[in-house]
Amino acid sequence: MPEPSATARAARTSARTAAITGVLGVLFALLTPFMPVQQATAALDWPQGGSLDPVTAPLVSYVPDRITVSVPCTAVAELPGGTGTLVATGPVDSPDTLRRGLSIAVNALPDQRRLLEVVVRNTPLLTVDVAALAAPNCGAIVFTGDAKQVKAEVTGIAGPDGQPLQGSKENGFDYRPQTVGVFTSLHGTVADATRIQFHADIDTRYSTVPAPARWVVIVLAVALILASLVALHRLDVAADGRRHRRVLPDGWWRPSRLDSTVIALLVTWHVIGANTSDDGYILTMARTASEAGYTANYYRWYGAPETPFGWYYQAFAWLAHFSTASPWVRLPALLCGIATWLIISREVVPRLGRATRSRFALWAAGGVFLVYWFAFNNGLRPEPVIALGALLTWCSVERAIATGRVLPFAAAAIIAGWTVAAGPTGIMTVAALLAGVRPVGRRILARVRSGPLDRRLVIAAYVAPVLAGGVLLVPIIFSKLTASAFVAKTLMQSDVGTVVDTKKWYNEIDRYSALFTFTADGGVARRFAVLVTVLCLLLAGAVLLRKGRIPGASLGPGRRLLAVTFGGLLLLMFTPTKWTHQFGAFAGLAGALAALTAVAIAPTAMRSPRNRALTAAGVFLVLGLSFSGPNGWWYASNYGVPWGESTVLALGGIFFAACGVSVLAAGWIHFHEPQPAPVPGPVRRVIGVAGRQSPLTWAAGAVVVLCIGSMVATTTLTQFSSFSNGKANLQTLAGKECNLADFVLTEPDPTSGLLLPLDGNTRDGLAGPGTTGVSPDGVPPIINATTSSNTDDSSTSLDAMARLPQDTTSGRTATAGINGSHMRLPYGLDPARTPVLGSYSQEAQAPAKIVSKWYPLPAAAADQSLITLSAAGRFTDDELYLEYTTDRTAAGTDPKVAGKKAFIDIGPKPAWRNLRLPRTDLPADVTAIRVVAVDDDLAIDHWLAVTPPRVSKLVTAQRLIGSTEPVLLDWTSGLAFGCQRPFAHRNGVAEVPQWRITPDQNLSPVTTEWEGTLGGGPLGWTQMLLQQEKIPAYLRGDLGQDFGDVMRLVPYSPARAADLTLGTRTVWGTHTEAPIRKDKTDS
């Protein structure tokens, strides 16, 4: 046989290298999660420092892996008064300690007997008469617990029947107690009699770093995959004999007028535009990732990591090290937007054919792309990078087909892998890969048939690097997480689910249904973006099917663009959630599709006037459906936005009428064909002007103008004196970075702001002449609150998620207040200085009225700009109001009423809330005020209760909370309160927050449920450890807007943070930890 040439030998070497390194790269990549890691270990041991002082250690997993408690029998005698708690895993006074934790306590019975009770999760394990514990041979009360069994026993003595004193539960239910620390009624230092031993092993399965062996596998996997790609490149070069081509051709960076317009609008929207729904959620996860050692979900699922999704969030973690200002942390979205547009205009559109490069098509692409970006992608959600990744995947596939090389297809696999890892929506990139499999596969088979090498070797040489590129992300993303932990957390997340049920593929209709709700989900821009994409698919597809190609457009790329967009929408069915946010991933593809459709419906391609009239009817229908929704945006982005709560004028009806006229015109033209239908001169001129651009361009331009115009008006007009995204972001550029925290005014000490009546008698200040039918205890003990009356539903609705009921408990106290009231007062008001009167009665109903005494007003001051009053019940502006006088006031005088003014009441009714009135709404010469409240409705649920008026000193939320104290920021508030520091968590234990900031009253029940016990969120342990005390707070310049609540978190029992016993151990990726306990019920 003749010796192979040098070229053949080189090709064989490259093929073998590509095949071997590709296969090994895949194997090493998939092996990574199973390799060993160094896991941090943590345990809670108590007592600490020789002291019996309680300690806090809120476990992020709620329960320890294992727990052992041993209490000497002699400790019982050391309890103050002979009763109390020996050991508990929650505060002694917390009602959740018995319900969900462990309590070993001595309780007294009515017959004076004392019993030792060991209770775990409301289940008594052991009850022993304290007299039996005084026996000399009594050893200790011992409790042990793990996922299979909990057991309590008293060692050294037996029961009256001679049996061991013990009790246990092992019926398949996980009784492990929730642990937020160790608490006791004992005091002082540890003595022999009180030498308690408490030990709990903490779940740290996610606190891992790669062990040396895993590092070796990671490096080998990445190196082998890169080597296989290099070998693949050599095979491509050997096959076609061409040199490497430039990735970016000449002129790629030269901007056009359209480029400047699109980029300028993207930058403008970045500053003044609305944000996305999950920005606070994602930013908080990113800010706490460094301390935790991994990116945890933070608000749910027991601190489980986001892996394999969420690598994109690491960018925000890096940015947050420098600043948490909104324009700064959202820079990746802006950069993705600019990059996506440049790729559309320079890579995608040129590949679609000569006609699509026209200004006609490019402006249509720009308009649709901008609507998508404005509606979905101006925040921290992963859709911007997914939109960019989807477009890059399509471009790489097209380059592979155009050049006949396989390396670009491997690059597409790499990009698709990373796009999927950015978020589940990235699954849409699979459509682009599938679209390229057939032509690329044919090219590979052609090389197999024409080459001298072994067929199997050649196929492996081309296929292995592509597969290796697809798994390149695996060793990087799974550098820390073990396979066992990943499986456990995935099963747990599936089991726990979300507040709404996790959706199946056949529930995809729910995503589209949400577009037509009258909420931010169904805003004008969101509806238009999705509906115009569907219209483009129909129009371009119809032309392609009717004519076999779109005149002026390339057949192959055009067909694949349609297939990839349609396939992406189909693949979206397989994502586990059905939020409308995920449509933002189609921004790039939809922009390119708009350019193709503009060519398809241009007069040169669609020559029939009838068909063009029907196309116009379709565009008008999309506009009509879009403008039938509100111009609504998420949360604080919607404050003061024109038409944010209503339809935009009557444009929806106008566009529907235009749709009908276009259909009639199409019919008129149809019955006149083949003769041209008569067209009036004015109509001909309008058509001539409109025909200079595609109807898609005009329609998208209208929505872009609405978005930009409404946000400019919000920034400069409607919210000029208050908060808006634009104003806050512009202030950030001037150095004030605290966003909404600089606009929220609070009353740190509302009691100090109480006004004194003229006669100085605080006790009877509310009970002036004419007061009747009320009493100090005229408030129901439990108040069921409804939603806020002054909150915009379109900005606070969580997609299609049903609102949950919210209860506000008033309650009673044993100690009477200043006027004899036993009602618990809200907002930290001191009952010893705050009288209260109410008209509620469970017995006979009678008319009631409150006319307070006159309260002199203090001198006006910048930090005392509001008159406030805490009230509860159901009433209108005519039933509770303020009267004022301009007479000189002194004790013993009877000033004349000069006028009256209603308070601003934002609800929720009938809960306790703070009515507010700017002092500037009163005449400048007002000297005193009084409160008038009337309840002449005899329905039992119609009542009211009031406290005296206040003029408190106001400070901003930023001054009150600062930037150093730990805060529980509900997930809707994380971006708006960027200067506040979220509580950290490390080694499975969370830092105890001192404050909580919640959204408005409509959304607060949803965030509370999401973050609560049943979801494994932080509220599951904060409510066991802390009490919430609302601070009166108001949005400066927009007092009728419900921004949410600022709450001070007060411990049930003062305690310091525990010192953990830390260590490390090396475990393999298959190492199994204790099961994650999932709360099926709140117990």
Shape: flat
Q: Which class do the helix and strand fractions yield?
A: alpha+beta
Residue stretches low in confidence (pLDDT < 50, at least 5 long) are 787-809
Counting DSSP E segments of at least 2 residues, the number of strands comes to: 36
Strand content: 15-25%
pLDDT averaged residue by residue: 88
State the helical fraction.
Answer: 25-40%
The biggest beta sheet is recorded as: 8 strands, antiparallel
**Number of individual domains:** 4
- Computed CA radius of gyration, to the nearest angstrom: 35 Å
Distance between the termini: 81 Å
Helices, by number, come to: 29
Written description of the protein model:
It contains 29 helices and 36 strands. By secondary structure, the protein is of the alpha+beta class. Helix 1 (6-31) crosses helix 14. The longest helix is centred in the N-terminal third of the chain and has 29 residues, at 212-240. The model is unreliable at 787-809 (pLDDT under 50).
